[in-house]
Automatic annotation (TrEMBL):
GO cellular component: cytosol
Chain positions of site Important for catalytic activity: R218
Top-level enzyme category: transferase
Species: Faecalibaculum rodentium
UniProt entry tagged with the keyword Transferase: yes
Annotated positions binding phosphate: G21, R25, R44, R88, I89, G90, S91
Highest taxon of source: Bacteria
Family: Belongs to the PNP/UDP phosphorylase family.
Keyword Magnesium: no
Entry annotation: catalytic residues: D205 (proton donor)
Reaction(s) catalysed (UniProt annotation): uridine + phosphate = alpha-D-ribose 1-phosphate + uracil; a purine 2'-deoxy-D-ribonucleoside + phosphate = a purine nucleobase + 2-deoxy-alpha-D-ribose 1-phosphate; a purine D-ribonucleoside + phosphate = a purine nucleobase + alpha-D-ribose 1-phosphate
GO molecular function, one term: uridine phosphorylase activity
Protein name (Swiss-Prot/TrEMBL): Purine nucleoside phosphorylase DeoD-type
A Pfam family per the record: PNP_UDP_1
């Protein structure tokens, strides 16, 4: 049975879903990496496709921008479609000085300025974290493929244009590697559902330095991330 946001029928979505923020990137992955992809969702143009990669079923579907959006889609996938694993593949702004453009980051944990976790009414502050095996395997795959990678704490922010001009510097001072906008909600939904999640990021810009990738560099860098994520599919 379909949901308000996903039109797929039971059995049309694989147990592992790769989620780029941009639905057109999901379309790109389906067309360039999957065998016999079938479109399973187009509601609100949030494109989703299911096919095979190295003989294994996998779905790729956009998540949209921000925690409210990925919160909806990941909740429905985990709870209504029996999805076991969601791997977010997105872009991020690098904060750690060691990071270079096109490097990959494995989000071991996701700090946040969001109130998304308040819905769970915890008696303290919960730390949203990735599945350990997925994170460890992602780092190992990067090493095997010769891809530069760092693993650690990232920031999932609700704010793209922050009125507090020193906000990113303060996060950087606490060892945050990079900033993006979705992982914390994904990790919290996975924890609540007893499922698995991982956030893989490509450094597309360095906001504290004002540098960023060209469109050609983005295509190359994101392709590396796509290959790592697809190799994680069980």
């Amino acid at each position: 049975m379909s949901t308000p946001h996903i039109q797929a029928e039971p059995g049309q979505i694989a147990s592992t879903v790769l989620m780029p923020g941009d639905p057109l990137r999901a379309k790109y992955i389906a067309e360039h990496f999957l065998e016999h992809p079938v479109q399973v969702n187009s509601v609100r143009n949030m494109l989703g496709y299911t096919g095979k990669y190295n003989g294994k079923d996998v779905t790729v579907m956009g998540s949209g921008m921000g925690m409210p959006s990925i919160g909806i889609y990941s909740y429905e996938l985990y709870n209504f479609y029996g999805v076991d694993t969601i791997i977010r593949i997105g872009s991020a702004g690098g904060l750690a000085p060691e990071l270079e453009l096109m490097d990959l980051v494995v989000g071991v944990a996701a700090s946040t300025d969001s109130n998304y976790a308040t819905q769970f009414n915890m008696p303290g502050i919960i730390a949203p974290t990735a599945d350990f095996d997925l994170a460890m395997n992602a780092v190992s795959l990067c090493d095997e493929l010769g891809v530069r990678v760092m693993a650690g704490n990232i920031l999932s922010s609700d704010i793209f244009y922050n009125d507090q001009k020193d906000a990113l510097l303060r996060w950087k001072s606490m060892g945050i590697l990079a900033v993006e906008m979705e992982a914390a909600a994904l990790y919290l939904n996975a924890a609540r559902a007893g499922k698995k999640a991982l956030c893989l990021l490509t450094i597309s810009d360095k906001p504290l330095e004002g540098s960023g990738l060209s469109s050609q560099d983005r295509e190359t860098g994101f392709t590396q991330m796509m290959k790592v994520a697809l190799e994680l599919v069980q």
